[in-house]
From TrEMBL:
BP-aspect Gene Ontology terms: galactose metabolic process
GO molecular function: UDP-glucose:hexose-1-phosphate uridylyltransferase activity; zinc ion binding
Keywords: Carbohydrate metabolism, Metal-binding, Nucleotidyltransferase, Transferase, Zinc
Cofactor(s) demanded: Zn(2+)
Source superkingdom: Eukaryota
Pfam families found in the cross-reference section: GalP_UDP_transf (PF01087)
Domain Galactose-1-phosphate uridyl transferase N-terminal: 10-194
Species in which this protein is naturally found: Lithocarpus litseifolius
Name the UniProt record assigns to this protein: Galactose-1-phosphate uridyl transferase N-terminal domain-containing protein
Chain sites annotated for binding Zn(2+): 57, 60, 131, 182
Taxonomic lineage: Eukaryota, Viridiplantae, Streptophyta, Embryophyta, Tracheophyta
Keyword Metal-binding in record: yes
Record-annotated active site: 184 (tele-ump-histidine intermediate)
Coiled coil: none
Signal sequence extent: none
């Protein structure tokens, strides 16, 4: 019956007032939402039989000498039994040893295109010392410690006046961009505000100017809600770019992720764990990406009322193809209300 309902449902174009992006919802291209499963699941873990330490993995306990220099660890002592390590990326996109960026004189052969020196920071957060564990295997308290490690590193990077935006992200599974299977995430400190971030901030500003309200605070969650906790809600956004995309949003207006306190971190850790486990259970443990969308570091006080941070999770179930790359307009075969219902009804994994 679900497939018959979908055949009778017309396509829609929806605008996301947070990202200023149009999305096409095309049910004719869809299976039933409950049929979506990853065709290339990420590596399945089994903590009862898998080796805790894997030979040759630089992120495993005891292999610290194989890594780039350490920035800090949790606990912060020199105890070899660490829980989290933040290290320099061995193959960084940007170079922290360069001078702070200054504009390079335009090359006349490049029609005046502006060029900056490639100064910036690219770090890795090793989320657990044990190879067999993934983020969803950790306790809420352990995940909160990973989140607080992000916060601490952002605050360190914010002390550099030339760093204007810090992007925290996680790639899980080879097809999502992870080069190592050991659970880790990454942090990049940029000397610019990236265009997607500027577009998001401008879209939020436009909504605020027109309504006097924050576009994220105003999200209507009735049919989009998956679950909720004391400080956060999880939803499938109204104009979800990807099938089964999830946003975790602070209930109270908050502009900067790095203002997260310890109680909020534990609460967020629990809801993030639940979403990852629901997604793994329903979608066959798909490769995924998650990103923390926060404020630029140098925003002014008048900007704070309309910038609201959130965490986005994208399971890798579809392929971005020519139309999306050409237009920036994505085609999603699953209506968000349907995806939210499917995820809401997945029994909470133990």
């Amino acid at each position: 019956m679900a497939s018959e309902q979908k055949q009778g449902r017309s396509p829609e174009l929806r605008k996301d007032w947070v990202t200023n992006r149009w999305v096409i919802f095309s049910p004719a291209r869809a299976k039933r939402p409950s049929d979506y499963k990853s065709k290339s699941p990420a590596t399945t873990t089994n903590t009862t039989t898998a080796d805790q330490i894997q030979d040759g993995c630089p992120f495993c306990l005891g292999h610290e000498h194989l890594c780039a220099p350490e920035i800090f660890r949790v606990p912060t002592s020199s105890d070899p039994d660490w829980k989290i390590r933040v290290i320099e990326n061995l193959y960084p996109a940007l170079d922290r040893t360069l001078n702070d960026p200054i504009a390079v004189a335009p090359n006349p052969n490049l029609n005046g295109v502006e060029v900056l020196g490639g100064f910036g920071f690219h770090d890795v957060v090793i989320e657990t010392p044990f190879h067999s564990l993934q983020l969803l295997d950790l306790s809420s308290q352990e995940i909160s410690e990973v989140l607080l490690a992000y916060k601490y590193r952002i605050l360190q990077l914010a002390a550099h006046s030339s760093i204007h935006y810090v992007q925290v992200f996680k790639n899980h599974g080879a097809s999502a961009g992870a080069s190592l299977s050991h659970s880790h995430s990454q942090i990049i400190g940029l000397p610019i505000v990236p265009p997607n971030v500027s577009a998001r901030v401008d879209s939020m500003k436009q909504y605020f100017n027109e309504t006097g309200k924050c576009s994220v605070c105003e999200i209507q969650v009735k049919e989009l809600l998956i679950d909720e906790s004391t400080h956060f809600i999880s939803i499938v956004p109204f104009a979800a770019t990807f099938p089964f995309e999830i946003w975790i949003i602070p209930r109270d207006h908050s502009s900067h992720f790095h203002q997260l306190d310890e109680a909020e971190a534990v609460d967020l850790g629990g809801l993030l764990k639940l979403m990852l486990r629901k997604m793994a259970s329903q979608l066959n443990n798909p490769p995924f990406n998650f990103m923390i969308h926060t404020s630029p570091l140098r925003v002014t006080n008048p900007q704070l009322p309309y910038i609201h941070w959130f965490l986005q999770i994208i399971p890798q179930l579809t392929v971005v193809a020519g139309f999306e790359m050409a237009t920036g307009c994505y085609i999603n075969p699953v209506f968000p209300e349907d995806a939210a219902k499917v995820l809401r009804e997945v029994p909470n994994p133990e």
